[in-house]
Amino acid sequence: MMESYRQVSLPRLLAFIGPCVPFAALGLPLVVNLPEYYGTTLGLGAVVGVVFFVVRCFDILVDPVLGYWMDRTRSRLGRFKLWMLICLPILFVSTGFIFLAHKGVSPAYLGGWLFVLYVGFSIAALSQASWGGVLSTDYNERSRIFAWWQVGNIAGIICVALIPVIVNTKLHYSYATAVQVMGLFIMIMLPLTIGLALWIVPERVSNAATHDIRLSHYFDMLKRRNVRCILWADLFMGLAPGVMAALFFYFFEETRGLHRGQSNVAMFLYFVAGIVGAPIWVVMAKRLNKHVTLIISSLIFAVLYGAMAFAPQHNAPVVMIMTFLNGMPYAASLLLTRALMADIGDEVLHETGHDHKGTLMAILSATTKIGYAISVLTISVLGWLGFNVKAPADSPHAALIWVQVFFIALPVLFLLLGAYAMKDYDLSPERHRRILDDLMQRDVL
Fold it and tell me: Residues near 79 by Cβ (< 8 Å), separated by ≥ 6?
């Protein structure tokens, strides 16, 4: 069997997903903890939502440039491995400034260092996802690779989600201390995991020409129907958990009566369920194909999420069980959209002669960022509707109704739209195999 079809060994997979731990440990607080922390604990108020939204919008403009340069990169270290190395110092320094900040910082401080952090995070996420797309060209093996990638992400999320539980509940330190420990954990794990991945995991570099790759090709990709299907699906399916993450503490504590320790446990269970669910979606993708599985998972997610409207007040065990069930389909969209986009990269290479996997992952990264930027903006919208971001317990009853509407109705709508967006996708496993066979004969993989 040819090298590009071989199954990636478990040791290499584990080394490859190692950087997912600090990356995801950084990604979760950026959506869940830091907006609420800077708004409430550090006293910046509802302006935090605007700052995060504006910085995200500027960050999105970086992705086309990154995708362009990654597709043109050729080095002894590799194409995407080189960029993984570049992200290390950027993330290390900016993480320190964001997580170790004290009360009294200005919105400008937050916005400036947040932008640096997001640029480093963009390089990290894009280079790793693109690297995963070239570890194998096999249709089903890619599902396995990105399932492990998602498991690594969830492992990182669980690690960082446990920190407040341990620091606040067990050690009885302040929430501010817990956020600072999160930052220190990320800073320690970044060089350890990235170094191990660069040492152990190989990268197969495409033989396709790079001299005529243009930045405008980024926008050419948007004209392709299958790309648009994935992008719309990724946007809507990312908006749903994004809104949930941004409003998680407000919903569970102000409308369901949980305290912060119980909310942290509920979040922990949500992500544990993602690890449990990941192999289920891989098996289903082998039997039904990936895009059908993506549709089914989104519909299941919508039903389970809608049931959160009936979560009882002051009943932590029931709320935690419901949150765990919602975590089961959480893993599906991220792993399947990236595996599908890697397949589209082969289709594009077959038709154009250009290897645009970096560009395609950059486009996918942009839609994910748009979703999370809009999600964080819901905090500011709720502030305008009367919700007291600095002192949530003092919010009027009408504002708490809006919290519930935003937390439940919006994600259900987005998940249904995400499933609908995939109805015209047509790159089947059989057609993908024919494309690969032709590329092998042309020796451009």
Answer: 70, 71, 73, 130, 203, 205, 206, 358
* pLDDT reading at 136 higher than 80: yes
Q: Which of these, 208, 34, 206, 23, lies nearest to 126 by C-alpha position?
A: 23
Buried b (16+ CB within 10 A) or exposed e, 23-60: bbbbbbbbbbbbbbbbbbebebbbbbbbbbbbbbeebb
Looking at 41-45, 104-108, 262-266, 359-363, which range is the least confident one? 359-363
- Both tokens of residue 129? 């996802």
CA pseudo-torsion sign 194, 198, 199, 201 = positive
Residue 443 to residues 206, 207, 305, Cα–Cα distance (Å): 9, 7, 47
pTM of the model: 0.75
Helical segments of 10-138, H only: 10-17, 20-31, 33-36, 47-60, 62-72, 80-99, 107-133
CA distance 391 to 322: 27
Alpha carbon distances (Å) from 445 to 7, 211, 281, 434: 16, 17, 28, 14
Amino acid at residue number 239: L
Name every residue whose Cβ is closer than 8 Å to that of residue 73 and which is 6 or more positions away in sequence: 79, 80, 82, 83, 358
DSSP 6: S
**Helix, strand, or coil here: 422?**
coil
Q: What digits encode the pLDDT tens for the residues 380-394?
A: 888 888 888 778 888
Single-letter residue type at 329: P
The region of weakest confidence among 9-13, 16-20, 107-111, 344-348 is 344-348
